[in-house]
Design goal:
Blueprint: H1 4-7, H2 20-27, H3 31-39, E1 47-48, E2 54-55, H4 58-72, H5 77-88, H6 94-128, H7 138-146
Helix pairs in contact: 2-3, 2-4, 4-5
Length: 147
């Protein structure tokens, strides 16, 4: 998918390639997720030793950090893939990046509004519940009414 090796951003270009454990440590993600992202094509083709061990360049580690930060911001894997491709594309337009971020922001706003509604409802129900030895419970009544 991306071409991180050919012309992507790199950290120290004279650094030696590292194994998957070190790439995971340097990027702050698990080795399992490194393999997952590689399998999705987010790292391009990762070099392997003659014995089959993966070797990650500083550019790969930088890409893994980019992916981690994108995931921390809540972008979907599809959006992350688009952002990685745009990041490595020197001919990109910022409008393309902004469109992805704007769509994600709008989705976050919808989810936050829904969660705030849940919070208000639950706070009201908790306030109305006596929380004593009696069986009457407005929380259960509300949940049963919705079922």
């Amino acid at each position: 998918m991306s071409t991180a090796h050919a012309h992507g951003p790199a950290a120290a270009s004279d650094a030696l390639p590292v194994n998957i454990g070190e790439a995971a440590r340097l990027s702050g993600i698990s080795a399992r997720m490194v393999r997952h992202y590689e399998g999705l094509g987010l790292l391009g083709e990762v070099h392997r030793t003659d014995s089959g061990y993966r070797q990650y360049t500083p550019a790969d580690v930088h890409t893994l950090r980019f992916i981690k930060r994108s995931r921390e911001m809540g972008f979907s894997m599809e959006q992350v893939a688009e952002l990685v491709d745009l990041w490595h594309n020197r001919r990109r337009t910022s409008a393309s990046v902004k469109r992805i971020a704007q769509n994600h922001l709008e989705e976050l706003e919808r989810r936050i509004a829904a969660m705030q509604g849940m919070q208000r409802t639950l706070a009201h129900l908790v306030h109305c519940c006596q929380g004593d030895q009696r069986p009457d419970c407005p929380i259960l009544d509300d949940l049963a009414r919705a079922a």
